[in-house]
Amino acid sequence: MRTLSRIILLITLYLCAPGIPAQTRIIDNLKRSIRLAGNQQQQLKAIFDLCDLGYTLHPDTLMVYALQGLSLSQQMKDMDSELNAQFYITGALTAKGLIDSSLSLADKALDLASSKLDDPALLANLYNQKGRCYVRKNQYKEAIEMGYQTIAYGEKAGDVLLQVKGKTLIGWAYLEMEQLRDALNWHLKALHTTNDSVLLGKYAILFANLATNYNGVGQIDSAYYFIDKGVYYARKYENLFALSNCLAIESELYVKNGKAKLSEPLLKEVVEIRKLIGDPFYIASDLSQLGFYYAHYGQPEKGIEVCNEGIALAMKYKLDTKLFFLYGSLADNYKALGDTEKYAAVLEKIIALKDSVYQKNSAAALSEMQAKYDVQKKENLIIQQKFDIRQKEYLFYGSLLLLLLGALAGWVIFINYKRKQKIKLLQMQEEEKIISAIAVTRAGENERKRIAADLHDNIGAYASAISAEVEKIGDSVEVKHKGTYENLKLHSQEIINSLRDTIWVLNKENITLTGISDRVKNLLNKLRPTYNHIQFTTSERITKDVVISSKVAFNIFRIIQEAVHNAIKHSGAKNILVNMIANDTVTIQVKDDGTGFAPNPSSATGNGMLNMKSRAQDAGLQLDITSHGGEGTTVEVRLATTN
Known about the structure:
Layout: H1 2-15, H2 25-36, H3 40-51, H4 59-76, H5 79-95, H6 99-116, H7 120-136, H8 140-157, H9 160-176, H10 180-191, H11 197-202, H12 205-216, H13 220-236, H14 240-256, H15 263-277, H16 280-296, H17 300-316, H18 320-337, H19 340-401, H20 403-472, H21 482-506, E1 510-512, H22 513-527, E2 535-542, E3 547-549, H23 550-571, E4 575-582, E5 586-592, H24 607-619, E6 621-627, E7 633-639
Parallel strand pairs: 2-4
Antiparallel strand pairs: 1-3, 4-5, 5-7, 6-7
Helix pairs in contact: 1-4, 2-3, 3-4, 4-5, 5-6, 5-7, 6-7, 7-8, 7-9, 8-9, 9-10, 10-12, 12-13, 12-14, 13-14, 14-15, 15-16, 16-17, 16-18, 17-18, 18-19, 19-20, 20-21, 21-23, 22-23, 23-24
């Protein structure tokens, strides 16, 4: 524990800066209680009450008081309090962007708490903190697992708020994966965990997430309802973290619904609150969003200024994923300003940034390969040295016994030399093959990334612009042209969807079956609002998560997409089921309970059937289509080999 304390103190010397401003009335009162505490026990309680507002505190302030609590706990020899102090330190590290350090400290605290304490509330808090870290690292499955652990220990502790936090964490992970229905389901579960409005009001971030969910599924009235509640409770209980999130979402709602002028003051307030809280992860996001607003509402000079501020912040804290959004907003502002030269330069910088990330990964892989090769080379050298020593001994004693044996030994040496030369030649050839293969792979990957970037930044932008323009002319279209307008609107959206699917494949060399399954879920989620008379269902039985080449994955997805669209358009089905099965083989089924067709679907010559057969043949897949009149249709795709 002493070593851990030294590490934390060193972190503090790096993190803590003087002069952090006061933030809220509640925080000021708690600081006063700490100063006026009559004994160590009262002071420790006041410190932990303040640290409970960690989302609202600046991370440097949180770190200072958490370390003070840690020191007091150690003086009192109170391990439970000591581990609670470490939990608050993980929160400060997370807000500061030191995610790996936060996870490492949380794991150490969990090990101690699990073995030496029976405090389910502390365990729930630590698991929830780990989940927040995993979401920031885009490790969503791990984050969901931490959410379930938070709920379980929250129930064991009888703590309703911890149960709400665990369910909200799971919903947040699904929200980040764009699985909006699952996210909404979990956030509603969190909302209905308790009827205590005061408790829910103090956890106003839940209302912000619900508003984001309803906005994503197009239920704007519900989104406004929950964001109004979120802003009200966040201001009432002085929860700056929740307030900044709520205001950012409210700003997005105004922009989407033609009230852009109301958005700017909200975004400015968001940025000021983020700076006060001091979480660079969210500050960079908000500056990017504000820059995007300026680009599209006639203030590109302001947009360029805030984007450059955000880029400097992202570079300082190594927030590489935020740089893509910031440079994208910066490019939009230069484009709006009419500065084509700087616009092109920023686009090149985006591509270079993507290439550099890939090259770093490739360099790491090469370094690992080289390290393994060096170790093997040293082992071979030791073996060879031992062999040489033994051989010299044999030659020495053999020459004393008989010259003939010496000659024989010389012959053996010659053969052995030839063998080693042959082995060295083969090793050199293999090394050249490896280097060539790496170079080819890198070149191919770079080209795929570059093509994906070009599609996104150029064709994607124009496709989105076409879709937006089509939306604008909807009200002015004459009745006799309504059919043409609806077709144009549908086709423009299909272009965007097809482009997204193509970019999804180009961005990856290999894709897992669960990745395809997630893509299918997104497809069905988008279809549900349009075809609400059909029940769409997915089923996963994946015991082995198979890695599939991007080409095969793309063809599998297109076959599933074609089968689902055929069922919607032609079968009259009420239920459509997609089964994803993987064990020693991969089987994917699309089933419907529609009218089917007869007598022999395999001989059908429609474009949909021909497209599916062509894709299956091109990707080396086995395709079976079975149907009987009135009994529905089953399209089954099988992959002959798995890894």
